[in-house]
Each structure stands twice: as structure tokens, then as C-alpha cells.
Write a structure and sequence with these properties.
This protein is mainly beta and 121 residues long. It contains 3 helices and 7 strands; from the N terminus they run ββαβββαββα.
């Protein structure tokens, strides 16, 4: 997911839509690494977050929403995107490339350039 240069990731959640509405199936706070604070992390990996507030039981569903919790201009807010694992798993990656939540293969700079914060003159 794109992140502005002045944002810091503070947590993340995986949310699915069920019969009773939306349900959080995994959540974590306090990124351990600079990469995780910049939005590059592995879901359900203890190496990327200090605190897992909701453990993932079982495997990831085929589709879900990834929500980033981040601080920008001193305020904590969220941004989310829909993830289709079939698209992500079919991607071939070179060094420095990532699969976006939309299933596109891009570099980190290309991902972040999608946000208007990176288009200021």
C-alpha cells in the first residue's frame, strides 16, 4: 500500500466481510523495523510487529481488506485496500519489486507515487 514520506505506520489489520458485517481476523501494533514503519511487512510475522493484538487463526482467506494504521501530521488515521491473493500469488517479482494490494507489480517508489502527497510541487 502506498505511504507518504511523512507518514509512519503504527499498526495494521486484516478485515474480512462476513454475514454479520466486517470482522478483524489479524491485527498488530508497534512496528519493529524501519521497513515495517514504512509499510513493508509480512502479515502475521512476529519479526515485523512488537504487539500482535489479534492472532491469525488458520490461513489467510482468498480475499480480504488490509488496513494500515498510520500517523500523518500528528494524527493517527487509517487507509485500507482490497487484497486478492490469487492475483498476488501469480505475480513474478524481481529484486526490489512488490505486489500491491491490487495485484500490480511495482517498485516501492512507484507504489508511493500513487498518493497525492508525493505529487506536490
Amino acid at each position: 500500500m502506498p505511504v507518504c514520506h511523512d507518514e509512519t505506520i503504527t499498526g495494521s489489520e486484516i478485515v474480512v466481510r462476513g454475514e454479520g458485517g466486517f470482522e478483524t481476523i489479524w491485527s498488530a501494533r508497534e512496528p519493529r523495523t524501519a521497513e515495517a514503519r514504512e509499510g513493508v511487512f509480512q502479515v502475521n510475522s512476529p519479526r515485523d510487529f512488537v504487539t500482535v493484538t489479534k492472532e491469525l487463526s488458520g490461513s489467510l482467506p482468498k480475499t480480504f481488506y488490509l488496513e494500515l494504521v498510520h500517523i500523518r501530521d500528528g494524527e493517527e488515521t487509517t487507509r485500507s485496500g482490497y487484497v486478492d491473493l490469487d492475483k498476488a500469488r501469480s505475480a513474478e517479482l524481481a529484486d526490489g519489486e512488490f505486489v500491491t494490494h491490487k495485484g500490480e507489480v511495482m517498485t516501492r517508489a512507484e507504489i508511493n507515487a500513487q498518493l497525492s502527497c508525493n505529487k506536490r510541487k
